[in-house]
Amino acid sequence: MKRMQHHRLLALGTLLLGALSPLCSQAQSAPHSLSGNFGLFSDYRFRGISQTWLAPALQGGLDYAHASGAYAGVWGSNVSGNSYNNGAGLELDVYGGYKFALSQSLTLDFGALAYVYPGARLNSAPAQPSNQKYDNLDVYLGLSAGGFTGKLSVAASDYFGLNSRTAPYAYFSGLAARGSSKGSSYLDLNYRWELASLSEGLALDAHVGRLTVRRYAELSYTDFKLGVVKSLGGFNLGLAVVGSNADKAYYQIGNAAGQDAKRVGRTGLVLSLQRSF
């Protein structure tokens, strides 16, 4: 059944790509621009943690930008639907913000991003969903200069539904109830080296991030990524090493004893094929 769903998603994505490409081309005239992206990934890693339980993901999004610096967009990916989050088979991100130049080489970016998981509910008792949604709202502030980008995101809601009611059953293992996790933060640092002198369209990407979960320090960790991207025939081919030092006691899937468990924060290779339009 999952394989059939992936084939349907791929077919739908191909049709969407063909239908939207002319519209995006027409929207490039100032002051408006519309762009999109579509890709296949061997794993969906969010802040170093696999959201597909180390399985492939199909992803795509649309972005609108205004000459004033305002922008908005939507992005989606399949995620692992399982008993833990009670039916979250889709992640849908909706965001908007504003960018403006502080100097010729420095750009400021601020906005908000909502992570939505239609139909998903966190557990409030073993095998029983609560009314607590898995959704999350971040506000962020970022800076970019040349190949460097840095962004600090702060949760304006409970961090993906984590609070006293859901803590004992969240994040794959029991936690002591300590209140709301609102105010949790993620620091995201990235650098891209263009390697055109070696090969046209070749780039090296480096990333390090730090998640700090408020009141639930066990869930805090550092993640990293090092990868290469090659533009070829209108597509971007990617290969990256992604991992984290997330505590295995919490970031795993499997039984409580850890037998046959998958470490969803472990270091691994991620392959990708993307197309922008």
UniProtKB/TrEMBL annotation:
It comes from the Bacteria. Keywords: Signal. InterPro entries: CHP02001. Pfam families: Gcw_chp. Residues 1-27 form the signal peptide. NCBIfam families: gcw_chp (TIGR02001). This is TorF family putative porin. The lineage of its organism: Bacteria, Pseudomonadati, Pseudomonadota, Betaproteobacteria, Burkholderiales.
